[in-house]
Amino acid sequence: MSDNSIQEPIDSTNSIFSFFKNHYIIIFLCLFILGLLLYHFRFKLIALHDRYRTRTRFSNGFYEDLNDGLSSINFDLESNIENEDIRDGLNMENKNKIKKIMKDKGLNFDDARLELIRNELHENEIDEDGVPKDPKLVTFK
């Protein structure tokens, strides 16, 4: 066997450095173009980052309720989001009931909320003005 048949293992760090040494202009141009693109789209990237942070901060809260259409002039969730309200948002059970009423009856959010409250009052035997329907009820004026 000759010495030519024995090959030394290639040093991977040496090959990486030789790649950078041979192609430094291309690498520099790619980094320069990437920097220009980041600078050019900086405002859009910042807005995207803020939108992501807002979604994660308000996930399962008012932001999700607003996207589901569960807001109106009388029940303004946008002001809660702008004021960074830390509450969890609407009750999940009632939220699902309101969505179902909106879908089934074609009502807007306020009318669906009113329908839900009327149904709950009826189930608990309470009149629409808040007086219980119990025959044994005694009231004083």
Could you describe the 3D structure shown?
- It holds the Pfam family DUF2015.
- The chain crosses the membrane at residues 23-41.
- Keywords: Membrane, Signal, Transmembrane, Transmembrane helix.
- InterPro entries: DUF2015 (IPR018559).
- It is a single chain.
- With 141 residues, this protein is mostly helical.
- The chain is built from 7 helices and no strands.
- It has helices at residues 12-22, 24-40, 42-57, 62-67, 78-82, 92-105, 109-123.
- Helix 6 (92-105) packs across helix 7.
- The longest helix is centred in the first third of the chain and has 17 residues, at 24-40.
- The chain starts with 11 loop residues before the first helix and ends in an 18-residue tail after the last helix.
Q: Which regions are unreliable across 5 or more consecutive residues at pLDDT < 50? A: none
Q: How are helices and strands ordered from N to C?
A: HHHHHHH
Q: What proportion strand?
A: under 5%
Summarize model confidence as the mean pLDDT: 82
Q: Describe the global form.
A: rod-shaped
Report on the biggest sheet: none
How many β-strand runs?
Answer: 0
Number of helices: 7
Radius of gyration: 32 Å
| Alpha-carbon distance between the two ends | 117 Å
Query: How does the helix and strand content classify structurally?
Result: mainly alpha
- Could you estimate the helical fraction of the residues in percent? 55-70%
Family: Belongs to the UPF0357 family.
InterPro entries: DUF2015
Transmembrane segments: 23-41
Keywords: Membrane, Signal, Transmembrane, Transmembrane helix
